DNA sequence: TAATTTTATTAGGTTAGTCTAATAAAGCAT
DNA sequence: ATGCTTTATTAGACTAACCTAATAAAATTA
């Protein structure tokens, strides 16, 4: 269907559009796929020919419906394989990406669906990124405040309610960003503070104010 | 390390040498990798340069130790992935080959070993082909007569004791060849005949004479 | 706005792996 | 052995994906 290289460009464009509504330029793509900008121009022409993207110097590149569908499937496979590598083969989260980059290109009618079923229909990959469903939908992340999460549950940072610099700097200090997993270890009834585990092994205590400023799902 | 294409050539050469002690010619390789003979000549040069094979117009191509080691790892991965696809994802034996062709090229330090462990160290793939061990050894197939296999067990045709044309023709008729899986469904005490399942779904009854002429493991 | 810097694009070249067509070498059959 | 057929090899070309260097266009800053 599409070459491995084409798939990598589509995935990169998808990821770039996922991050924010920014204009997707040849240069940004070049950086994402680690290639010279001139090469990107060639590929932009090719993907445009194939009606996988639209490109316009002013608006930048944008996936067409067809391109989006293709990219979503690649991302779905990538994230499912990451779950497989962590849950079934016991790799740690820093080892899985490179392998998933290869596995995501394996083609077969219903491979993603079978894998999805085998893994128990996970909603997020080990990095906290949402896994697109078979129909291309992302899990409809019902956001809650971190303070609403029950003890023992793990959630994932989806957004911040408070966007003050001081709060964001605190998040940065704690290595918390969109997608970070947080497990609620304990809640202190006295003042509403929480014992949480951030990511894989960092534990800390945060205040009620903090827990009411972070949106998770 | 080696390109996907190189890996495919090495695997093909390995498979050709596995079948019998025949001379491996450019033409036979061309047929195996589905490519023009002229292309094979180029690749022979490349693989020779890389000391993965030795080539001589008279003796044909032969894997070096290095080439053999590489090929064995690819075959190991291929066969392990086939087990995964059948046992874990529920694909049938005719669907798995094409996917395993892609999966076998996924590179990572200890991926094969982890997969092997996860699958419970299988010795044969769903087609009955032996899975090379981590050290490159093939399972040392202790051969028995089919007649010695217990009811309910599945075994795999390893060799024939009787090489008469008439017996081989009978085997052909039953679609039994080296590697074919046979499950012993029942043994008739009266005359030593056996109810067996050949391959995936063909059931038949064979005589004691038959069961004592087939070596399995 | 003019000058400078950055970004986009074109032109032309490289590499891996493929092909076809032509030639050389072997193998086989009379 | 001598011609016929098959196999191996060379020569030359193509494609996808990449590169560098040069130019054009846009954006930024003085």
Ordered list of secondary-structure elements with their pairings:
Two copies of one chain form a homodimer.
Chain A (H helix, E strand, L loop, with lengths): L3 H16 L6 H8 L3 H13 L3 E4 L3 E4 L1 H23 L8 H8 L7 H8 L25 E2 L8 E7 L4 H9 L7 E7 L6 E5 L3 E5 L1 H4 L2 E3 L1
Antiparallel strand pairs in A: 1-2, 3-8, 4-5, 4-8, 5-6, 6-7
Helix pairs in contact in A: 1-2, 1-4, 2-3, 4-5
Chain A binds a DNA duplex (30 and 30 nucleotides) through helix 3.
Distinctive features:
homodimer; 217 residues; alpha+beta; six-stranded antiparallel beta sheet; two-stranded antiparallel ribbon; 8 strands; DNA-binding
- Please work out how many helical segments of chain A DSSP would assign: 8
Backbone CA Rg of chain A: 19 Å
SS elements, strand count of chain A: 8
How do the strands line up in the largest sheet of chain A?
A: 3-8-4-5-6-7
Oligomer class = homodimer
- Specify the overall morphology of chain A: globular
Could you describe the largest sheet of chain A, including whether it forms a barrel?
6 strands, antiparallel
Protein chains sharing the most extensive interface: A-B, 17 and 17 residues
- Strand portion of chain A: 15-25%
**Could you spell the SSE succession of chain A in H and E letters?**
HHHEEHHHEEHEEEHE
**pLDDT under 50 segments of chain A (min length 5)?**
none
């Amino acid at each position: 269907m599409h070459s491995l290289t084409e798939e990598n460009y589509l995935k990169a464009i998808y990821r770039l559009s996922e991050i924010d509504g920014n204009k997707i330029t040849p240069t940004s793509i070049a950086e994402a796929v680690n290639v010279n900008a001139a090469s990107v121009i060639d590929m932009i022409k090719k993907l445009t020919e194939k009606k996988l993207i639209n490109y316009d110097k002013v608006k930048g590149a944008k996936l067409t419906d067809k391109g989006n569908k293709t990219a979503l499937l690649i991302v779905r496979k990538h994230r499912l394989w990451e779950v497989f590598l962590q849950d079934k083969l016991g790799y740690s989260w820093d080892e899985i990406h490179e392998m998933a980059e290869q596995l995501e290109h394996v083609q077969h009618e219903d491979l993603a669906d079978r894998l999805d079923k085998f893994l128990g229909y996970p909603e997020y990959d080990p990095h906290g990124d949402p896994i697109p469903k078979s129909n291309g939908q992302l899990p409809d992340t019902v956001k809650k405040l971190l303070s609403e999460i029950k003890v023992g549950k793990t959630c994932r940072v989806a957004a911040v309610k408070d966007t003050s610099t001081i709060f964001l700097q605190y998040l940065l200090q704690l290595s918390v960003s969109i997608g970070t997993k947080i497990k609620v270890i304990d809640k202190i009834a006295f003042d509403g503070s929480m014992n949480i585990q951030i990511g894989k092994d960092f534990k800390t205590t945060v205040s009620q104010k903090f827990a009411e400023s972070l949106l998770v799902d």
